[in-house]
Structure formats: structure tokens, C-alpha cells
Amino acid sequence: MLEVNGEEDHLHLLFGFYPQMQLSKFVNNLKTVSSIYIRKEFPEQVKRFYRDKPIFWHSTYFIATCGGITVEQLKQYVQQQDSPTDDEVMERDSSRPRRRSGRGGDSHS
User: Fold this and answer.
1) I want to staple 35 with a disulfide (CB 3.0 to 4.6 A). Which of 63, 67, 81, 107 is the partner?
2) Which parts of 20-85 fold into alpha helices (H)?
3) SS3 73
4) At what angle do helices 43-50 and 23-41 cross, to 10 degrees?
5) Based on the number of CB atoms within 10 Å of its own CB, is 35 exposed (0-12), middle (13-18) or buried (19 or more)?
6) pLDDT in tens, 53-96
7) Against a cut of 0.70, is the pTM above it?
């Protein structure tokens, strides 16, 4: 894992992998391990938002490859994927309700 950043409802991950690696297995393993860790380290927050549902991550994911730029440029891109400004959050929150519980998917999918 080279770089991690995220927002309320998604993550940006920059990672290296070997051509022999099955990306679907990597992603599903990452979801499973991180779900177990987060539930163990932050049980009250998880219970508050997800209650006792076995669902944490959405079952889908998006992966893109890129070339022609350096790893440092990619790291900088991920770092710049900051959360929206306070004004953007207020505008978004006033225009649509926020859903929290049941928002994920099965971490084993």
C-alpha cells in the first residue's frame, strides 16, 4: 500500500501489485481484513452507524491503471483527494439526505 486517502463514502488507494496477483482476491481480502480491524478497534462507532448488520463494504469496486507518470505524482493525486470544503458539505447536506446504516456491502463478496 503506497498511499491511502478517503472521504465519507469511498477510499482512494494507491498500491503496487505483481502481475500474478488476482485483483479481485486482493480487494476482497482487503475488505475482509479491514472490516474485522475496524469493527474490533471502533466497535461503538460501527454499531452506531451499521448496528449489528454483517455488512460493511459495498461488494463493488473500481480499479484503474495508469502509465506515463511517476509514483510520486500518483501519491500526490491521492493526497489531494481531500474531503469537500465546509461550504460544499453544507450545500450537499441541505440538498439530499445522508444515509448511513446499511450503506455497505458484504465484506466477503
Assistant:
1) 107
2) 23-41, 43-50, 71-79
3) helix
4) 110
5) buried
6) 777 888 899 988 888 889 899 888 888 886 555 455 445 444 44
7) no
